[in-house]
Amino acid sequence: MKTINLKDIYPYYFTEDKWIDVPDELAQIFVDFIKAEETYERTKRRYKATYSLDRGDGIERDILFVSLSPHDLYERKLTQEQLHAAIASLPDKQAKRIYAHFFLGMSKTAIARSEGVSKVSVSESIERGLCSIEKFLKKFL
């Protein structure tokens, strides 16, 4: 049996010294916990990680959620409409390939395999389509 001070382990609950006898295994658990806590705090200071994004106190949400002004929302909507109009102005095959590659995240190889054509032809088609989109969008600037 070892004697421990509960004030050292629970400083917020015990303002005065409170000594109790505990089994050796429990005393070792407390020692291991204190060492792990010190290691965690040292690592946190070393890597300047003072906030945990998994904590659920809203820090991550506040960082990721940026409220946009009405002007920004309107500008974003116009940009999306212009982009969709530019894609719609492309030939059907180019539009489908650009949509599959950039919006669905398919690789050029996967697109080529699904269409039964070479990867080079898909790459060239996407490049030509992007040039056409660029020309189309320059009209609005």
What does this structure look like?
The chain is mostly helical. The chain has 2 domains: 60 residues, no CATH class; 69 residues, Arc Repressor Mutant, subunit A (Orthogonal Bundle). The chain has 7 helices and 2 strands. A two-stranded antiparallel ribbon has the order 1-2. Helix 6 crosses helix 7. The mean pLDDT is 84.
Features:
141 residues; mainly alpha; Arc Repressor Mutant, subunit A; two-stranded antiparallel sheet; 2 strands
Put simply, the count of helices is 7
Can you tell me the number of structural domains? 2
CATH class group of the largest domain: Mainly Alpha
Q: Got a strand count?
A: 2
Biggest sheet, in brief?
2 strands, antiparallel
Please state the CA-atom Rg, rounded to the nearest Å: 30 Å
Order of strands across the main sheet: 1-2
Mean pLDDT: 84
SSE order: EHEHHHHHH
How would the blueprint of this fold be written?
Elements: E1 2-5, H1 6-9, E2 19-22, H2 24-46, H3 59-64, H4 70-88, H5 92-103, H6 108-115, H7 119-138
